[in-house]
Amino acid sequence: MKNTFQTGYVALIGKPNTGKSTLMNALIGEKVSITAHRPQTTRHQILGIKTTDNYQCIFVDTPGLHDDNSKAIHRYMNRAAASMFTEADLICVLLDVKRFNQNDEKILQRVSKLEKVIVVLNKIDQVTRAACLPMMKLIAEFAPGREIVPVSALKRDNLDRLETIIVAQLPPGAPQFPDDQITDKSMRFITAEIIREKLFRVLKQELPYSITVNIDHYKVESDLTRISATVWVERSSQKGIVIGKNGSLLKKIGTLARTDLERLLDSQVYLQLWVKIREGWADDEKSLAAFGYSDANPSH
To answer: Are 200 and 156 in the same domain?
Structure first.
């Protein structure tokens, strides 16, 4: 008798910087979501799709839930994350083993009445086993009856057990995507995200989160992919920070992004980057929509 095929959406939920993107990339075995040691790197819902002979698990990487609703972009990110509470077949709440606090307690309270929830205690590679056990006991008080799975997404520790637990809770159903598809996002979207990742990594703490990337031109030729992108900032002072002295930082960002893109596309890439100013874009609904930050969440 053939096993019933299982398909389901699994939302990765948590406060900023708990390792949601790293976990999704590790579970599907491909880099779909960008990562940086910075909170709020993820701004959209991003699907990572893993298909086997027996199941299709559709992971949903979400922006970190946070209390700051001061700007339109923060409100958009909170909506993108919170919508999965009712839309997903299974919720995985990610917690950082070293940073459990009241924000995590609030999230656990929000999912307390949902049926299918797993608590994933991430970054256990950063603590001793002796330190991990009392933390699991503490979390169990805030999530009674929930399975708590300690993992290290970065080191891929205990991910096999986590995946087994996740798959056991997927409902029966036909696959939603072709078996060779690993994300719902277009190459234009992924390209913009890769450039934004390099901006975050190169600029470190120098630049606020008032930065986004838009792909202006994307053309695939026989042996070359031509890409032109604009880095948008909110103030003229930020433009100089992104460009750097004599263009040094923008050149470094472009080189790092092009290297990743050539590896991903298996093709030579010609990448042009421009830096432009749109004052206050992160708190302007029309600008957000123009840059792809809408509740419909279209790909760039």
So the answer is: no
Of the candidates 27, 128, 11, which has an alpha carbon nearest to the alpha carbon of residue 64?
Answer: 11
How is 81-103 classified by DSSP, letter by letter? Answer: HHTHHHH-SEEEEEEETT---HH
Query: ∠ CA(163), CA(167), CA(171), 5° rounding?
Result: 160
Residue 180 falls inside a structural domain: no
Task: Tell me: do 59 and 96 sit in the same domain.
Answer: yes
64-74 core/surface letters (b: 16 or more CB in 10 A; e: else): bbeeeeebbbb
Could you tell me where the DSSP H helices lie in the chain?
20-28, 72-82, 84-87, 102-110, 129-142, 159-168, 187-203, 236-243, 248-265, 285-290
Element (H, E) at 182: none
Rounded to 5 degrees, φ, ψ at 96 are -90, 120
Domain boundary among 106, 136, 168: 168
Report helix, strand or coil for 61: strand
Range of the domain at 49: 6-168
- Kindly report, residue by residue over 206-233, the tens digit of the pLDDT: 565 678 999 999 999 988 999 999 999 9
Rounded CA-CA distance 11/143 in Å is 17
Segments in the chain below pLDDT 50: 1, 297-300
Q: What is the pTM of this model?
A: 0.86
Residue 98 belongs to some domain of the structure: yes
Q: Which of 135, 168, 201 is the last residue of a domain?
A: 168
CATH number at residue 158: 3.40.50.300
**In the structure encoding, which two tokens stand for residue 88, read together?**
């997903």
Residues 10, 159 share a domain: yes
Contact 280, 234 (CB under 8 A): yes
Per-residue pLDDT tens over the stretch 4-47: 999 999 999 999 889 999 999 999 998 888 776 666 677 778 89
